[in-house]
Write a structure and sequence with these properties.
Layout lengths: L2 H23 L29 E4 L10 H4 L4 H20 L7 E4 L8 E10 L3 E10 L4 E10 L4 H7 L10 H16 L3 H19 L1 H4 L3 E3 L5 E3 L8 H76 L4 H45 L3 E5 L2 E5 L3 H20 L5
Parallel strand pairs: 1-2, 1-3
Antiparallel strand pairs: 3-4, 4-5, 6-7, 8-9
Helix pairs in contact: 1-8, 3-5, 6-8, 8-9, 8-10
């Protein structure tokens, strides 16, 4: 091998290594969700009323934001708190449309009285990917399942929807909600008529025991796993139990009022939320492109400098070699500098996302609800407000029966 050939090999080797690395960095994942469209499994025939289970969908746990600064970019707990109200309503509507259930209601956390309880936690939500952990359990304490659901959409989905003359109004992650609803319906299908009747009885007795523990707690037995067994059923004509059932109906009315406000909140939130997710997705995609461009410039700069070092190690002190070496070093330094200049552009995108975040938080304000002359704010403290509502029901029960309970 001649000296010139050796020089060329030494010069091209670092460049080849860096370009190979760049090839790996530029590889993109799929642009569409790999799960595709998931149709909703609807009941093919009307289910008898005594075989229907009422469903409580709790307000979701908003979870935590990512620890990684880049992943958390543009996200905020204000948005997560709003999503924790919005997403249960999406699931409620989806389940209601299947025809497999009785009343499907969104309730504050720790609400007693539901026949099927669905709880959710937001593990990830950034406009491009949604990950929810869903736990379903019935009133008897049996857990149906506890699993995570994930859906990721491609970068071009929002843009493609905008190109349509009449874009669909369907939730962008509707396939995820359909999958959850389908799984719940499948578990419901495996229950016998007797098991459904037992679940409904336990739900009534748990509500009664919560309202008046001394009067009804003995009707149920709970084991160390939190599973309930019916020990005794109140007489059908028991006036005290009849009052409990009447108060339970009032409780349902309160929850229905709450659901009406949640529905209004979600309708008002829908447009700004969709715009935020779309903009956040576009800004995140732009940021990734900028970061890839910056990395390309930096790595090419490093390759040029490495080439200059290789040239210096093999040159014979000739004037032409010195010029080439200096040119490579200066060119490499400029490429690295422009790479870091590109980094400053990412700040622009971060600022744009944060501005969208703040704008969204202002538009998705909590709602104030009025129930029986009392005003309540539908925020993260809804659980506390609902506890006050339950206290009101207990006072009504005491005033009507004279039984104070414990």
């Amino acid at each position: 091998m001649t000296k010139q050939s050796a020089l060329n090999v030494r010069f091209l080797l670092p460049v080849f290594m860096v370009l190979t690395l760049l090839g790996g960095c530029s590889t993109l994942g799929p642009t569409h969700d790999v799960k595709g469209h998931v149709p909703l499994n609807k009941a093919i025939a009307e289910i008898p009323e005594n075989q229907l289970l009422d469903v409580w969908v709790e307000l979701f746990d908003p979870g935590k934001l990512p620890d990684d600064e880049d992943e958390a970019m543009g996200l905020s707990m204000d948005i997560r708190e709003a999503e924790a109200r919005y997403m249960p309503e999406q699931l409620r509507t989806t389940m209601e449309n299947t025809g497999h259930w009785g009343a499907v209601r969104v309730v504050p956390q720790s609400t007693t009285g539901g026949e099927l309880l669905v709880q959710g936690e937001i593990l990830k939500s950034d406009g491009e990917e949604l990950v929810l952990r869903i736990r379903a359990s019935d009133a008897s304490g049996h857990e149906w399942f506890n699993r995570a659901y994930e859906e990721e959409i491609g970068e071009g989905v929002y843009k493609a929807r905008n190109l349509l003359r009449n874009p669909p109004k369907q939730e962008i992650f509707q396939s995820l909600y359909n999958t959850i609803a389908n799984d719940l319906a499948e578990f419901r299908r495996m229950l016998s008529a007797k098991e459904i009747a037992t679940i409904r009885q336990v739900a009534e007795l748990r509500f009664a025991a919560d309202l008046s523990p001394d009067a009804f707690a003995g009707d149920l037995q709970v084991d160390e796993k939190g599973r309930y067994t019916v020990m005794h059923l109140p007489a059908a004509n028991d006036p005290m139990y009849q009052r409990v059932l009447a108060i339970r109906d009032r409780d349902f009315l309160l929850i229905d009022t709450l659901n009406g406000h949640i529905d209004n909140f979600c309708r008002e939130m829908e447009t700004p939320y969709d715009e935020w997710r779309k903009a956040r997705s576009e800004e995140a995609a732009a940021l990734r492109k900028v970061e890839r461009d910056a990395m390309t410039r930096k790595l090419l700069g490093v390759a040029a400098i490495l080439g200059a070092i290789a040239l210096e190690a093999t040159n014979n002190g000739s004037y032409n070699s010195s010029i080439l070496r200096d040119t490579l070093v200066l060119g490499g330094a400029y490429a690295i500098k422009t790479g870091f200049d590109k980094d400053s552009e990412t700040d622009i995108h971060r600022d744009a996302i944060i501005e969208l975040d703040e704008s969204f938080s202002m538009e998705a304000r909590p709602l104030v609800v009025e129930v029986e002359g009392e005003t309540h704010e539908l925020t993260g403290s809804a659980e506390v407000q609902y506890t006050q509502w339950r206290a009101l029901l207990k006072r009504i029960y005491i005033s009507e029966t004279g039984f104070t309970g414990s």
